[in-house]
Amino acid sequence: xxxNLRWFKSSYSxxxxxxxxEAAYTWHQPTRPATVHVRDSKQTDGPLLAxxxxxxxxxxxxxxxx
Length: 66
Description:
Blueprint: E1 8-9, E2 21-29, E3 32-40, E4 48-51, H1 53-65
Antiparallel strand pairs: 1-2, 2-3, 3-4
């Protein structure tokens, strides 16, 4: 299942290292992801975290606040 995911990095990533978080979506409806997958860009074959879109949005909101 995860081998078919299309991973992306934040536009804030510098692209020079490997210190990035990558994310991918699992879609069940064309307009809303069902699951957000998160992994370390340095360990693409390592563990990943799967969360709901609501949990991901909450995380991003809190991260932006500092």
